[in-house]
Design goal:
By secondary structure, the protein is of the alpha/beta class. The protein has a single domain (about 5-130), classed as Ribose 5-phosphate Isomerase B, Chain: A. It contains six helices and five strands. The protein has helices at about 15-25, 45-60, 75-80, 95-105, 120-130, 140-155; strands spanning about 5-10, 30-35, 65-70, 90, 110. Belongs to the LacAB/RpiB family.
């Protein structure tokens, strides 16, 4: 089964998105299931809308991971985190990308076109994608924090009826 991923950008990140899309498909073996920005103008002043759309794609289990490229990756991930079950963060280095996934089971990372170059972004993607969160080997503290995050989402956010999976809060076998 081919691995699936979502990708989006603003007008600033368009060129890098295209480069990383090629890397994801041809080097990492991913299928892109969400890529709404076809020309730079499609991404102009749309980060909130695109974050909402990518969050829904993940909630509906069309894919479980997403990448957004803009100037910094910050605004998009802040917006994505407003959605039930979504954990998103901007990352600037491979170690943070790796820990985002291994410690927090993050689904979306934001990358900054104005922060890092292409080779470094590829290293960040490798760190984020190559070691997925595994409930069997995850630290107990990470698993407890995910359950607390789920409780917070339940308390503070509305869970849409269309959410099609456990959003990585729990092991698929246990949910």
């Amino acid at each position: 089964m081919k691995k699936k991923i979502a990708i989006a950008c603003d007008d600033i990140g368009f060129t890098r998105k295209e480069e990383l899309k090629d890397y994801l498909v041809n080097t990492k073996g991913y299928e892109i299931v969400f890529d709404p920005v076809k020309v730079p103008q499609d991404g102009k002043n749309t980060y909130a809308k695109l974050a909402d759309e990518m969050a829904e794609v993940i909630q509906r289990d069309q894919c479980r991971l997403g990448i957004y490229i803009c100037g910094t990756g910050i605004g998009f991930t802040m917006q994505a985190n407003k959605h039930w079950g979504i954990r998103a963060t901007a990352v600037t280095n491979p170690y943070s990308a790796k820990r985002a996934r291994l410690s927090n089971n993050v689904q979306i990372i934001g990358l900054g076109m104005r922060v890092n170059g292409l080779p470094y972004h590829e290293m960040i993607l490798d760190a984020f994608l190559d070691e997925p969160f595994d409930f069997r080997t995850a630290r107990e503290n990470s698993k407890k924090n995910l359950l607390e995050a789920k409780a917070d989402d339940n308390r503070l956010l509305s869970k849409p009826d269309f959410v099609a999976w456990n959003m990585g809060f729990e092991d698929d076998c246990e949910a």
